[in-house]
Design a protein that fits this description.
The complex is a heterodimer.
Chain A (H helix, E strand, L loop, with lengths): L11 H31 L4 H6 L11 H9 L2 H31 L6 H13 L6 H10 L6 H25 L3 H9 L4 H12 L1 H17 L2 H6 L8 H11 L4 H30 L6
Helix pairs in contact in A: 1-13, 3-13, 4-7, 4-10, 4-12, 5-7, 7-10, 10-13, 12-13
Chain B lengths: L5 H34 L2 E4 L2 E5 L3 H8 L3 H35 L5 H13 L2 H11 L5 H8 L16 H13 L1 H12 L3 H9 L4 H12 L1 H16 L3 H6 L13 H10 L9 H32 L1
Antiparallel strand pairs in B: 1-2
Helix pairs in contact in B: 1-14, 2-3, 2-14, 3-7, 3-8, 3-11, 3-13, 4-8, 5-7, 9-10, 11-14, 13-14
Chain lengths: 284, 306
Amino acid sequence: MSIDLRAKAASPGRLIFFTLVQVFFIIYAAIIFYPLFNMVTSSFKSTREIIRFPFSLPGRLDFNNYRTVWVDKGFNRYFFNSIWITLVSMVFVLLFGSMAAYGVSRYHYRLRTGIYMLFLSGIMLPLKAAIIPLFLLMRNMGFIDKPISIILIYIAMGLPSTIFILSGFMKTIPKDLEYAARIDGCSDWAIYRRIIMPIVAPALALVSIYNAVPIWNDFFFPLVFIQNPKWKTLPLGLTTFFGQHSTDWSLLFTALTIAILPVLFLYLFMAKYFIKGMTAGAVK
Amino acid sequence: MQAISRRTSERLWIAFFIFPALLIVGVIILLPLFMSLFNSLFSWRQLIRGSFAGLENFRRVFFTEPYRTRFMNAIGHNITWLLMTMLIQNTLGLFIGYLLSRRIFGSEFYKRIIFIPVLFSIVAVGFLWSLYLRPNGLVNSFLKLVGLGQYLRAWLGDEQLATPTIIIVNIWRWVGFPSLVFLAAIDNVPVDCLEAAMLDGARDSTVFFRVILPLIVPSILIITVLTIIGSLNVFEQIYTMTGLDGSPNFSTDTIGTLFYRTAFGSIDSGNPEIGIGSAIGVVIYILTLGASLLSVITLGRKEVEL
C-alpha cells in the first residue's frame, strides 16, 4: 500500500481514532506477553508463592527446578526426540516432495493431472479421522511404540502441501535451462539436483517452516502410537508430566517454559520467515 | 544390445521421481481412508471384524442411545466452536489486519507480537491456560486485583462456561493467523482502486466496506474453510484443559474427543468400538471434504468472475 494512504493525523477525529488503536494494540501485546512472562517468573517461585502472590517477582533465580525437569524428569530426552523426529521427517518430506513435484511439473504424460490431483486430495483429508485403520496398519507392520510409526505419518502429512507449493514454483522455470543441460549430457537426476533444486531453494525454506512447525507441535499421533518414555516427544512428555505432577505448580511452569521458550527465541530471530512460512497455504 | 528408447527412459525417470511420494501418500493417507469407509460397514467385536452390517453403525450413531445423545452433544459443541471462532477470532483478525495495513505507528512490531502464540503447540498453550484458569489461578487473582471479585469463576469447572473459555484460549493462540492472512490480502488490493476511492472523497469506512472487503473475499473464504476444518478437528484443546471425556459432564465434549474415546475405549464404555468409531470418522471425512469442496467451487467461480 502506498505511502499517501498512511494514517494522516489531520483531523481531531482521526487523532482520537488512532490513539485508541494504539491503546488497543498495547493492551493486546500485554495480553500476549504477560501470560508468558508470568510463566517464566512462576518457574522460579515455589507453589505456595505462585498461589499466594501470583504477580510477585521471584526472590532469586534458582535453576533447581530446571535441573529437575530437564534431567530427572526426562525433558532432555523428550526435547532431543522432538528434534530428531522432526528433522528426519522433514528430510524425507523435502526429498520425496521435491522429487514428486519435479515429476508432476516438468514432464508431460497422460496420468500427470490424475497423479497431481491424487496428491492434492491429501491436503484436504483429515488424517486423524483415519486413526483406526492407521493403528491397525501400524500394528500389523510391528511399528507400534516405535518412532517410525509417527515419522511415516509426518512424511505423509507433509508431502501433499510440499508437492503443491513446490510444483507451483517449478512450473515457472523456463524449459530452455533444461534443454541446455540435456545437450551437455545431464541426466534427469542431474537436472533435478543441479538446476531445478537450487532455483526453488527459497520455496524449500518456506515449505520447511510450513511443515516443521505442525510436526514439532503434534500431539495426537505420539499419543496414539508411543507409550515408551524413551521415544516420547515434547508435547507427549509434557502431557505425561502434567498427569503426574498436577499439584506442583512450580515444576509445571518450569516444564511449560522449557517447552515454549526455545520456540519463542527461534521466532525472535526469524519472525519474517515464520510468518511467511506458516501462512504459505492461505496467502498467494 | 539395444539402448532403451528415449521414451522408455523418460517413463522410468517419471516413475522414479514420483514413486516414493505416491507410495507413502497411498499407504498412509488414501488406504486408511478407504479402510475407514470399509470398516464402518461391518460389525466389530473388539479388534475382530464381524459380518457385513450395511449402514447399521451410522444408524446407531444417529438414532440409538447412548450414541445419539453423545454424538449430538459433541457436534453441538463443534458448532459452538465454529460460530464463536468465526464471530470473535476472524472478525477480530479482519479488524487487526486492516489496522496493520494502515501502517500505524509500531505496526511491524505489533504484527510480530500477535503471531507469537500461533507458533506454540496447542498442548503447551492448553496446559498453560489450564493452570491460569484454575479457581486459585492467575485469571481469578487478576479479577480480584482489579476489583472484579464478583466475577470469580471456576472457568473450566462450570458447564456453561467451560466451552466458551476454551474457545477464548484458542483464539488467544490463533488470532494472529487470520490477522496476517487478511493483512497480506489487503496489502494486495491494487493501489489504484484505493486511490480512486480516496480521490472521490470516500470515508475510511466506505473504502473498507465497498472496496477492500469485496476484493478480499477469496481470503475470507479460505479462512472460513480453515475455521470449519479446525472446528471439526478440536481435540488437543479439550484433552489438555478439561480432559478426554469433555468434563464437566460432557459439556466440552467434541466430535474429536468422542471419536478418540470410541476408537480406543475409555471411561464411556471401556472397550474400543471400531464400527461406531469408523462411522464417526467417516462423518468427519464427509464434513471436512464438504467444506473443502465448497471452497474450491466458490473460489473457482470467483476467479472466473474476476
